[in-house]
Amino acid sequence: MNGKLILLILLGGAVFSCSMDYSDAEIAEEIGENTPNSVIENFSYTSVENGGISFRLYAEKAENYSTKKETILNKVIFHEYNTNNEIVTEGTAEKGVIYTESDDAELTGSLIIYSVANEAEVSADYLYWDDSEKSLTGSDSGNVKIIRDSGTEISGVGFYGDMRTKLFSFDKNVNGIYHYEED
Question: Which CATH class is domain 38-177?
């Protein structure tokens, strides 16, 4: 009987001396901002408006960071569609960051965007998409090149393009060839 009482006392002491270990939760909070909430391989996103596809995005890998409110994409391919379900803009980039609160995006690395409607290609190593302004901005030091199907080629640094008005500008180092086209 004494052996059972001693065992009961030891077990009771062990049970009542247990405490919850919150160190894993503290670690998760510490690394949470730099650790993705989800990682998706072969990511695909489709946006539908008025019953038709308006935008498709593919990425080799997508990492979602909810605390930063951003999604990081690797090896990006995207297509924008018109109401007839025809591609009007398509592009590729090595990396993309989508800011989920604003739908703004940064695209980097061997970036190429082709507009079917404007018959023009834009290439750069960096572009920032401002969704509310519908504009593209290059970096202060990065070169952006525009090549139109007509043969016009213009490049420069400090690119800004307003997609609503179809106007663009460069701040410096502008050069190229312009082919006049009558409308």
Answer: mainly beta
Q: How far is CA 30 from CA 23, 24, 25, 81, 172, in A?
A: 10, 10, 9, 42, 43
Q: How far apart are CA 49 and CA 35, in angstroms?
A: 32
Domain boundaries, the chain: 38-177
Residue 168 near residue 159, CB atoms below 8 Å: yes
Which pTM does this prediction carry?
0.76
Facing residues of 98 across strands? 71, 105
CA nearest neighbour of 176 among 161, 154, 158: 154
Per-residue pLDDT band for 161 (boundaries 50, 70, 90) equals: very high
